[in-house]
Write a structure and sequence with these properties.
Blueprint lengths: L2 E6 L6 E5 L10 E6 L2 E13 L12 E4 L2 H27 L5 E7 L5 E7 L7 H11 L2 E6 L2 H8 L10 H4 L9 H6 L6 H4 L14 H7 L9 E4 L2 E9 L4 E6 L4 E5 L4 E2 L2 H5 L1
Parallel strand pairs: 7-8
Antiparallel strand pairs: 1-2, 1-4, 3-4, 3-5, 6-7, 9-10, 9-13, 10-11, 11-12
Length: 272
């Protein structure tokens, strides 16, 4: 029976399935695999497991061989080429006065293609730049414009939490993030406090959002009238994590209690 193995080409990149063939592979092993771009260098992240061939529409590419010292030497050579290409391209971007922010260059494993990643506020006419790069490096050239989040993912950095950015350490795709998530969690809506290095809303706002939404179901909404052991009053604050609410009693005193000890007064009674 054939076995499928999960391979990742970048530290926080997407995991791709490959046919393991007869290789005995373990997580952390470096391998050379067949890809649409030719041979590629990847790392095993999930061990080989049996799969139903009928459930897969397209035939899986195969693991070509275990990585050798020669393959690691090729990676070092590619890395040097990427640095040179980045510096050379930056010089020509400045010379041609192109409104683009070049931030990374990637080479295919066989060094047959160079991909230049950049961000820009609009479209960029880089035809002359591509001609110059092809003449210099004699390989296929691709200019790829990406979003600001992708730039953060590829460049990496430290978040306001003091840890490595989630997108560059373990997130393999970006989930939709909205300002409503910050509101659900009672966070400050100050953009500087809920935005990441990329300037967009922090990805971590999605982590606890479902938990907050589930916990808030048993909480009376802000402004509602409730009966508590301390008297009847209006809900002015919620502490979702501790399961407590603060109520403003009729005599303008603040009373805090467990949400389970508060009873919502029906709307008709509130009107009276």
């Amino acid at each position: 029976m054939k076995k499928v193995v999960g391979i990742r080409f970048k530290p926080a990149g997407k995991v791709y399935d490959f046919d393991a063939g007869a290789f005995v592979l373990n997580p952390g092993d470096n391998v050379v695999v067949e890809t649409k771009q030719g041979l590629g260098f990847g790392t095993v992240v999930s061990p080989p497991a049996g799969f139903d061939e009928g459930a897969i529409k397209n035939p899986l590419k195969k693991v070509y061989r275990m990585a050798s010292d020669k393959d690691f030497a090729q990676l070092e050579k590619n890395s040097e080429t990427e640095k040179n290409a980045h510096n050379y391209c930056l010089a020509w971007v400045k010379k041609l006065d192109l409104k683009m922010n070049l931030f990374a260059v990637e080479s295919t494993f066989d060094a047959s293609k160079l991909t230049f990643f950049f961000t820009s506020e609009g479209r960029v006419d880089f035809r002359q730049l591509v001609k110059t790069l092809v003449k210099k490096f004699s390989v296929r050239i691709e200019m790829r414009q990406v979003g600001i989040r992708n730039q953060s993912k590829m460049c990496g950095g430290m978040g306001r939490c003091g840890r490595e950015l989630c997108c560059s350490s373990f997130l393999d795709k970006f989930e939709p993030v909205s300002i409503r998530m910050a509101k659900e969690q009672g966070l400050s809506l100050n953009p500087t406090k809920i935005s990441g290095q990329c300037g967009r809303l922090m990805c971590c706002l999605t982590y606890e959002n479902e938990t907050y939404r589930e916990l808030k179901k048993k909480f009376p909404k802000m402004g509602k009238i409730v009966d508590t052991p301390g008297g009847r009053g209006k809900v002015i604050r919620q502490n979702i994590i501790r399961g407590r609410i603060a109520v403003l009693i009729d005599n303008n005193t603040e009373y805090e209690t467990d949400v389970d000890k508060a009873t919502l007064v029906e709307d008709k009674k509130q009107e009276k």
